[in-house]
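Thread: "does anyone have the structure for this chain?"

Original post by V.I.:
We have the sequence but no experimental structure in hand. Need at least a predicted one for the grant figures.
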Amino acid sequence: MEMITRMVLERPVVIYSKSLCCMSHTVKTLLCDFGANPAVYELDEVSRGREIEQALLRLGCSPAVPAVFIGGELVGGANEVMSLHLNGSLIPMLKRAGALWV
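Reply from O.Q.:
Generated one for you, tokens below.
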């Protein structure tokens, strides 16, 4: 889990994903369309991806991907990100984290 902690502090928005996961694609598209420029780690393409996936499950991410961190904090998966977007709190959260400048 130390590896995840270190990785999520490197950028305002971090997404753990799998390249063929449709929900991961949806979350990546949404955040990129806002201009957030997230760091994306495709767990099926990076070394130690399986280890990271297991750590995400231990953190409570179920399923493990997509897992979205904003400002170093776990937001959750696709359902949580979409809920934040629909209730109007996603963009302010991205701004507070320094991911959006507008």
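V.I.: this helps a lot. Strands lie at 13-17, 39-42, 67-70, 73-76.
O.Q.: and The helical segments are 2-8, 22-34, 49-59, 78-86, 90-96.
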